[in-house]
Amino acid sequence: IWNNIDELTKKYQIVHLVGKGLLNDSVEKEGYKQYEFLAKELFDVLKITDFAVSRAGANALYEFLALDLPPILVPLGTNQSRGDQIENAKFFEKNGFALVIQEDSFKDLELTKVDDFYNSLNDYKNAMIKYKDEKKVINNVEDFYNKILKEVGGK
Known about the structure:
Largest sheet: 3 strands, parallel
Strand content: 5-15%
Number of strands: 5
C-alpha cells in the first residue's frame, strides 16, 4: 500500500489498519489515513467502504460476507500459519466473493488489477447475496429472531 500510495490515492480513499506499533509516520497523503486498529468505529468504516484489502482470517471473512463487502485477499502462507487462510481465500475466490493475491505477488500487484476488481464490485456483491440467499444464511437480527421463533413454535 505504502509503495503505491500516490497512484492509489488518485482514485481511492484509503483507511489502512496497520496493526499495533506499525504506523508509518513518513506517509501523509490526502485521501489516506492509517490507524493501528479500530474498535467501535470499525463497523462504521466498513459500512462506507466499497472494498477491502485484507488477510483471510475467518472473522474478517465472515464480516465481509455479512456486509456484502468484496475483499482483495492476501492470505498468510504456510510459513506463517497453518494454511487455514489459504483455504478460506480459496473458498471466497471459488464462490466469486473475492480476488485472491498470494503474498509473494502482492508487492508486484499492478494497479490495473485493482481497478478491474473495483469495476466488477457489483458482480462480487451479487455473488455474496446470491450465496446467502441460497444457503439461507442469517444476516440480521430480525431474521435470527424469526428463525428462533419458528424453531420453538412461536408466532
